[in-house]
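Structure tokens please, single chain.
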Amino acid sequence: MSRNPAQRIADVLEAVERCRRYVAALDGDVDLLEMAEDAIERNLQIIGEAVNHLPAEITGAHPEIAWPQIRGFRNILVHEYFGVDVDILRDVVETHLPPLAEALRGHLAAD
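Here you go.
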């Protein structure tokens, strides 16, 4: 099933919100920590996959976003899953996802 750009943006924004909620559990007990890591990794994969299918007119309109790195991180999560550190996940969620969400929300508002 093919998804249009607006649906892909909605997928990214939903996954960003989930990551934001789940990152709080990284400070919890061990069982919650493992579940939060798994949930964040899965949603970061969704973000990377959705971004990979956004048309150039969307990504080109937001050069401040590191699109190749988002796509590349998705590949790391999928193919080198054993090397992902929880501190990196936290940094991605807290530092890099808010500007991505802001850019995509702005894009939707402009349409």
